[in-house]
Amino acid sequence: MTAKPLLTALLPLVSDLSRELPEGERYRRLLEAMRALLPCDAAALLRLDGEWLVPLAVDGLSTDTLGRRFKVSEHPRFAALLSGPGPTRFAADSDLPDPYDGLVDGLDDHLEVHDCMGCPLFIDERPWGLLTLDALDPERFEPIELDALQAFASLAAATVNAAERIERLNNRVEDEHQRAEVYRQASGQQNRELIGQSKAHKRLVEEISLVGGSDLTVLITGETGVGKELVAQAIHAASPRADKPIISLNCAALPDTLVESELFGHVRGAFTGAMNDRRGKFELANGGTLFLDEVGELSLTVQAKLLRVLQSGQLQRLGSDQEHQVDVRLIAATNRDLAEEVRSGRYRADFYHRLSVYPLLVPALRDRGRDVLLLSGYFLEQNRSRMGLNSLRLNSDAQAALLAYDWPGNVRELEHLIGRSALKALGNCKERPKILSLSAADLDLPNASVETAAEQPVATVTQAPIGDLREATERYQRQMIGACLERHNNNWASAARELGLDRANLGRMAKRLGMK
After folding, report:
1. What is the block-wise mean pLDDT of the chain (516 residues), using blocks of 10 residues?
2. Which of 204, 120, 129 is nearest to 163 (CA)?
3. Do the domain assignments include residue 185?
4. Do 406 and 476 lie in a common domain?
5. SS (H, E, C) 183-223
6. Taking the model in full, what pTM does it have?
7. Domain range for residue 276?
8. Same domain for 483 and 440
9. For residue 188, is it within any domain?
């Protein structure tokens, strides 16, 4: 590798250092320059996040790779790259499993023999992440190219450093210690990460950043399964209260008789079974954030008592006359239309307006385009690790099926689908495979059956006698209620909300249909 090609590849990056570019575009150009210098079939930039490697940009790898989170201890090639001070080239016939096995675009076979090398990136003498290159030709890379990769890695580290500095300036965060704490929490709790690149998702992230720095009460709305609790956690993590606790309460999981005790606490003897004084969620969240999920389920009585606390910051434990002062930021979530609940008299208007100081709508999965593939990659990697597989991937027809599906259960439905499909597909294998590929048939999405049913209902109904119509209607109701209950893990209150029914009415209907 002569100096001229190296200089030609590096000059655009040097120029980019002085330009303000979106983070994703800056990293894309970084990989583009590296592939110009060292042609390969796949390249990736990964950030080290605690014990995980998070892909920031990929070229030549499947889209779902961006949604994966690779645990270093489970991928010996990554561990080897991170442990070295400089570039490492693996032997073409290395027996170490390749984390990209099954993920290279256009290659459905195993990466049995190929050329692979990578280099750690250091910022302030600390490991920041990795650059990796894979070539299908086992003799593509030469030993001399390790020096070129090292030179490139040094400038790549400067590019990453510049990108992070620019991001900090653009965000105008005043408290750097708070940002470090938020980052630490995010790196330690992978389940709290919001994954996506769609416009709808980016708008949501921007709003989270905007409202996070304030102390406004936020009402998070959206369909069941979109991730409203994750959004609440992200708002808290972006707030000045991030170093304080976020306390959660699912209002639908408790009867009215216990909600007050959970929220405000109680004193000994306040009711049967109250053996000791107990602090409620408000006191536990003092100085931090209280997240009320399913807030649409609160009774009018509890709404009135909550309103007083929100207005004055004062509460009384059940059975006590003593006032307790609390400083709590409230975040609430619901999949109900609370404005309609107010109009129908089932919800207090003053409490609704107190909750919806800053309304935040979480987009449905079907409105997020190719984010479904990134989220699939995240869940695929989780299941790959859980099942002890070398690789768990999606065939092209499976990807197309995921993109075409309407996702009534949103991200939660996708998570359950991936786990269920992977387990079934593995059970159908006579021998344990190195790569387990999920096809559209493995996913068993109901597109075809739904479309077929939708094509013929009118003819069936108009030709059927009255008795058959009633029987068919009841059969359809049983199927619909059963499917809804399955999506909500037999939570009747949640199922009733999705079906647009009162919980008691749903119970009576289920009893009439022989389901209870």
Report:
1. 55 61 76 84 92 92 93 95 92 90 84 87 89 90 80 79 64 41 41 84 95 95 94 95 90 80 78 73 90 92 88 82 86 94 93 95 94 95 92 92 92 95 93 91 70 36 50 79 78 78 79 81
2. 129
3. no
4. no
5. HHHHHHCHHHCCCCCCHHHHHHHHHHHHHHCCCCCEEEECC
6. 0.74
7. 199-361
8. no
9. no
